[in-house]
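F.,

This is the one I mentioned.
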């Protein structure tokens, strides 16, 4: 069966259904899962038989910077969504920055959708943004179908997406009350520096000391108070430090509707291993030490962290300042959209995580965050037939030639990982198989309908 074909049924000896892996045939009709049958109950007909490859819900990556329009030299919908498909990702949610214009008004949102039209190999939803003074755009953007909103409590790295003050947040929260929408926070704030910033800028430790854990701790203190006060769904993106986990736990126990994600790079990479001048490892918040990393894994296992995402944030190689290796000047962002599933599995499988945990943390919970969980992230009748077919035992090396991101610079180059994606199916259509893509982009835009309980405008 060639990429681009419609798939009527998928058979495997290892289909993940709930917490169980068992033989099954997934019958697909009109792009959705029609039935899940045992082999003996399948009446026959054309079927994609994948042997003992694992069939799971497609990955939903709810934290992706596509950067189009405006910075298409960094990444774009065509390259980002092809890379996603090659990694078993069937849905992405695009961040409101670093595109120009950012997704902070209804007009800008429509411009973003126009740019994405005809370029998406997987399904794509969109976050809106909260910046100073745009609070009256929020409800119209909800009506237009954004999945929720993102804000920064510290400089975002780009001028056109300024960070918010506490006053801005009160104004935004008041608009979001009763809508069922969600506000995502880049949880770092500027604090009075106690360390001298005169270290060697080529040493990773110099950069790490400039973004201490207390920056996340203080930001999360602010977020939890606002979340409790307004009872608006709040979400902490890319948690890097384990220190605020107790604050998060206490806020949830007190009734805060708060969720939290971490990323593949915080779970796979640690500060001690980053060479001098290797600015491809720079991101904000920073990659911290190995003790902290094990604490994040423990929190993930205990259910204190809800999901794992890529935070794919690419740029052109020159912005990484590889020529001088200056961590203080380099753009902060890591490319990993294509490799999230094997990155996670390579580490998680050694720590006792099961395939059901992968589906929960990379598909189900991520779909729920963006209110896509009525159709994405699960294998069940009525859900979109979004499937990843993969071999969790097989190993491969990340080589530049196999990277489908627009810019190939990534800290994972040369790494050997466990878990090879064999095929990706989006709404019953085979978009990727064994290194080949469907000839035309088959992905759709996902607009999130406003919640029933939304206050009428």
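My design for it:
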């Amino acid at each position: 069966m060639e990429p681009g074909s419609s798939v009527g049924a998928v058979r495997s000896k290892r289909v993940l259904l709930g917490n169980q892996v068992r033989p099954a045939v997934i019958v697909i009709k009109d792009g959705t899962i029609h039935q899940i049958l045992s082999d003996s109950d399948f009446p026959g007909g054309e079927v994609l038989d994948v042997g003992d490859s694992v069939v799971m819900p497609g990955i939903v990556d709810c934290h992706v910077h596509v950067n189009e329009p405006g910075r298409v030299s960094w990444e774009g919908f065509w390259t980002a969504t092809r890379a996603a498909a090659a990694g078993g990702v069937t849905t992405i949610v695009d961040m409101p920055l670093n595109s120009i214009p950012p997704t902070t008004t209804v007009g800008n949102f429509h411009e973003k959708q126009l740019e994405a039209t005809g370029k998406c190999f997987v399904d794509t939803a969109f976050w809106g943004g909260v910046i100073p003074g745009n609070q009256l755009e929020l409800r119209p953007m909800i009506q237009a179908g954004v999945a929720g909103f993102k804000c920064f409590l510290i400089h975002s790295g780009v001028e056109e997406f300024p960070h918010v003050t506490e006053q801005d947040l009160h104004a935004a929260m008041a608009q979001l009350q009763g809508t069922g929408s969600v506000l995502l926070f880049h949880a770092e704030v500027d604090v009075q520096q106690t360390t001298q910033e005169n270290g060697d800028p080529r040493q990773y430790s110099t950069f790490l000391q400039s973004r201490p854990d207390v920056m996340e701790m203080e930001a999360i203190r602010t977020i939890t108070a606002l979340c409790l006060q307004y009872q608006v769904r709040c979400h902490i993106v890319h948690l890097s430090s384990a220190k605020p986990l107790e604050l998060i736990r206490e806020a949830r126990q007190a009734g805060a509707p708060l969720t939290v994600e971490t990323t593949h790079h915080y779970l796979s990479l640690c500060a001690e291993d980053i060479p001098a001048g290797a600015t491809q490892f720079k991101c904000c918040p920073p990659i911290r030490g190995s003790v902290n990393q094990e604490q994040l894994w423990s929190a993930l296992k205990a259910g204190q962290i809800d999901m794992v995402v890529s935070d794919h944030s690419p740029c052109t190689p020159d912005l990484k300042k590889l020529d001088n290796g200056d961590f203080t000047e380099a753009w902060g962002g890591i490319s990993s959209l294509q490799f999230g599933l094997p990155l996670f599995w390579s580490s998680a499988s050694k720590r006792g995580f099961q395939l059901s945990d992968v589906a929960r943390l990379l598909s189900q919970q991520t779909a729920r965050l963006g209110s896509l969980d009525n159709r994405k992230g699960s294998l069940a009748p009525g859900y979109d037939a979004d499937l990843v077919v993969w071999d969790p035992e097989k190993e491969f090396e990340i080589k530049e030639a196999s990277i489908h991101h627009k810019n190939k610079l990534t800290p994972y180059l040369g790494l050997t990982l466990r878990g090879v994606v064999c095929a990706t199916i989006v709404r019953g259509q085979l978009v990727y198989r064994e290194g080949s893509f469907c000839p035309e982009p088959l992905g759709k835009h996902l607009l999130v309908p406003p919640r029933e309980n939304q206050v009428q405008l």
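The longest strand covers residues 387-397.

Talk soon.
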